Amino acid sequence: MTAIHPSLPGLEEAALAPMRRSGRGYRIGVLLLALLTAAGIGAFIYQFSTGIGVTGMNDQVFWGIYTVDLVTLIGFSYGGAVVSAILRLTNASWRGPISRLAEGTALATLAVGAVFPLASDGHPERVWRLVTAMQINSPIMWDMVAIVTYLIATIILFALPAVADLGRLQAAPGLEGWRRRWFRAGAFGWSGTAGQHRVLDRSLTALAIMIVPLAVMVHTVLSYAFSLTSRPGWHSTIFGPYFVVAAIYSGVALVVVVVVAFRRIHHLERWIPERAVMNLGYLMAALGVLYGYLLFTEMTTEGYVGAEATERLMYALLLDRWSVLFWVFVAVGLVVPLLIIAFRRTRTVAGVTVAAGLVAGALFLKRFLMFIPPLTEPQIGGEIGGYTPSWVEIMVTVGALAAIPLLLVGLFKVVPVLAVTEMEEIAASRGEMT
Amino acid sequence: MIEMSGQRRTPTPLPQMPSPAPGEEVSRRQFLGALGATGAYLAFGGGLLERVLATDDLDAIAAGSLKLAADHQWVMIFDLRRCDGCRDCIKGCQQQHHLTEDDEWIKVYELTGIQGKYTMPVLCMQCESAPCVRVCPSRATYHRPDGVIVVDQNVCIGCRMCMAACPYDVRVFNWEEQSVPEQYHHESPEFQVPQKRGTVSKCTLCVHLLEDGEFPACLQSCTMEAIFVGDLVEDVMSNGRETYILSQYLRQNDAFRLRSELGTRPRVYYVAGHGQDLEF
């Protein structure tokens, strides 16, 4: 075996840290996540067998929290694609220790998010019709194609560098039993030759170039399910970019939370430097400003002209029925996180993490405000509609949110948490090798 | 040229790929070009150009010069001068289709205009350029050759994209299982009893009755005789008691269509009014 890069001392152990036997608190936490996930799956099965009438949706507000979940979770997954792909393309040297966690986040959130089109359908068992009776004009059709393509690309983006790392670490000390066999099988003969490195590097660059427009397309097409209708609040040319920016904004935020959590739990502070977390924080802040700008320009263009239906909706959002939620979003999702990152005193790892957590949660709320209030407005006449999620919808949602960390924990039980090969390449190119 | 598309849309043929001359290889550039052209065609040509066109041309209707796909092209006319908002049409419809009280395929809104309050029955507009048909991913909702839009509930996946697309709020989702005595059951997109859980329902213009030479249920139950059904081919309309020349009636009474600025080409016409003039 001819490894071209000598190792950074201690890196191998760190990359395998999540695979070691864990403490009691950690195991209780995982058990709790597993129980919540199981409850969510149970609620989903209950809904499937009893019928979609167990949700709180109605003829006026016919899309509910499942749609919010779908867009939010697929939005989260974008952060992983950005951090990994854009930082690779711009050759940012601080990407190394966070790229695996970012790609894992992308994969886990997308896998969970992709369940929600099914949860929301009246007849999920009929989705095969989208293939056999394909109606190419339908935004739902485009959604399916986009999400499936993006899922495949995300799997490859995660798997390719992981294969190299399995090969790189197959002889690492402390790797025993089934795991050693898995690393050897999963390596597909990777031995770290110069030729293999070249192939990996070129494929990853090609993939990084592909996945950025692909992710843009996915979110634009997702927005089309709303903006290609004639409803006030939905029918807007800004919706495509609005969805894309919201997705990266929330996605980077979630990557911060995941990176800091794993950094802390598995004591990876030496390998994931503060600088990486800070840089993610800056990236998030820049995206936050951009999102705030899009929000402002949406509200201004919609509100200034004062078309009757739009004006009603704007009033309900800004001053009346939904105003508390709306201004909470503006505060928690935009102003407070930006202030935290702006001030030197609060710009710490803990501060950035709190800001990121606020953003991730607030963008959930923002999706709710984007989808539900416009639906409550009748288009011709009649009463204003209402919607309260049922316990089934809440349990499915909670289960899905618990399934994401659970998937990540599971993922890093079988795949190294740090992109060892990539980190060594970066270190070698910067002459930091010992 | 005005034309109606057939029943279920048949997939439009793809544009011809440039076929290489014998011995000539297709270059990557050519291949990608053809791929791009196909994609553009599917996205724009396939979607936007292939529409069910007809009929806001009253002259053509009067002259009988419309080229249409079926012997009848059904429309409805609501004379709001006669509508007093009694909601009998809703009851008649619910009885005919065995609907629950919550499900209204025809709604009666109380609206306010400059003349004061007026009532407005709203049902499926049977749009010729129908947003619901365009967005349905599974071809469950489609135009019949006579212009009526129906839903095949055996095929509907229940995604409710059609409800999002409909500008008239006339589609109803069947959240719960409905129980109707066995002897009333009927199975077809034109006349479905009971409604199937997890699918979308809507007004079918009672096309099953029209085909038997009967009037739709709402029309039959309208004691004000405000509801008419018409046929663009025969240029005639009737509420069961009176019969008029359709194009003439629409013109003379300044008929309008609901939200026609959206380009949906609704097949339901209204004559403005507020229940004021009951003497005919």
What does this structure look like?
The complex is a heterodimer of chains A (434) and B (280). By secondary structure, chain A is an all-alpha fold. Chain A has a single domain, classed as Formate dehydrogenase/DMSO reductase fold, CATH 1.20.1630.10. Chain A contains 16 helices and no strands. The mean pLDDT of chain A is 91. With 280 residues, chain B is of the alpha+beta class. A 5-stranded mixed β-sheet of chain B has the order 10-9-8-1-11. A two-stranded antiparallel sheet of chain B has the order 2-3. Chain B has a two-stranded antiparallel sheet with strand order 4-5. In chain B, strand 2 and strand 3 (116-122) form a beta hairpin. Chain B is globular, with a radius of gyration of 21 Å. The two termini of chain B are 38 Å apart. The chains are: A mainly alpha (434), B alpha+beta (280). The interface between A and B is large, with 41 and 44 residues.
**Rg of chain A (C-alpha, Å):** 23 Å
> What proportion strand of chain B?
15-25%
**What does the largest sheet of chain B look like?**
5 strands, mixed
Number of domains of chain B: 1
- What is the helix content of chain B? 10-25%
CATH class identity of chain A: Mainly Alpha
Main β sheet profile of chain A: none
In short:
Chain A is mostly helical and 434 residues long.
Q: Which descriptors would you attach to this protein?
A:
heterodimer; A: 434 residues; mainly alpha; Formate dehydrogenase/DMSO reductase fold; 16 helices; 0% strand; B: 280 residues; alpha+beta; Alpha-Beta Plaits; 5-stranded mixed sheet; two-stranded antiparallel ribbon; 8 helices; 11 strands; 23% helix; 16% strand; globular; disordered N terminus
